[in-house]
Amino acid sequence: MTSLRLITLAVCASGALAAQNQLVQVTANFGSNPTGVKMYTYRPNGLVANPALIIAMHYCTGTAQAYFTGTQYANLADTHKTFMLVYPTAPDSGGCWDVHSTETLTHDKGGDSLGIASIARYAIQSWGVPKNKVFMLGGSSGAMMTNVMAGAYPDLFVAGAAMAGVPYACFKGTSLWSSDCAQGKIIKTG
Q: Is residue 31 within 8 Å of residue 122, measured between CB atoms?
């Protein structure tokens, strides 16, 4: 299955089917996680050897459980059995991802992004996920974190799908919110 097709299947998910399994919290030491991002995994029954990994990041005010039950990604995993999912939960009290700090925007320097990068590395080392099969996606704040991961960790991800987010580093600064970025006053180009 091509990378684009895998992401397209995940992005186009809709409906109200129940996943076969439940989320399982990753309690192993998966590496550096300075902000305490919690990680949950979903593995379909009959998962192929060397599966792809999709890290699915929730919106502001969301949680891993809310994104799991509010999307059909797990049902697609059940149907295709070619990928597993990781649903991280943002440690911020409002459920928003750190997409603004210098640490999170810098490769291996900290913030929420380092915790997510650590789980991707752990999946490669411990779960048999090939390096060329690590993907990410997210909506709203999760879309912004998808872009942060693409900008700060291009070595870890093959592709990503950001739905309703802003470009990498658009929110950069000391505040969790950037009115200038949100209102389109900051322009970012490749």
A: yes
The answer regarding whether domain 3-182 maps to CATH 3.40.50.300 reads no
Q: What is the pLDDT of residue 185?
A: 82
Query: Structure pTM?
Result: 0.86
Catalytic residue among 101, 118, 140, 141: 140
- Kindly tell me if the per-residue pLDDT of 14 is higher than 50: no
Strands 83-89 and 52-57: parallel
Instruction: Give the Cα separation of 46 and 106 in Å (integer).
Output: 37
d(CA 184, CA 34): 31
**Residue 141 appears among annotated catalytic residues:** no
For residue 13, pLDDT over 50 is answered with no
Q: How far apart are CA 164 and CA 156, in angstroms?
A: 22
Looking up tokens 């809310």, which residue turns up? 66
Q: What does the domain layout of the chain look like in residue ranges?
A: 3-182
Question: Mean pLDDT of all residues in the chain?
Answer: 89
Q: Which residue in the block uniquely carries the two structure tokens 């970012």?
A: 188
- Helices 3-11 and 73-80: crossing angle, nearest 10°? 130
Beta strands of 14-154 (E only): which ranges?
24-25, 38-42, 52-57, 83-89, 134-139
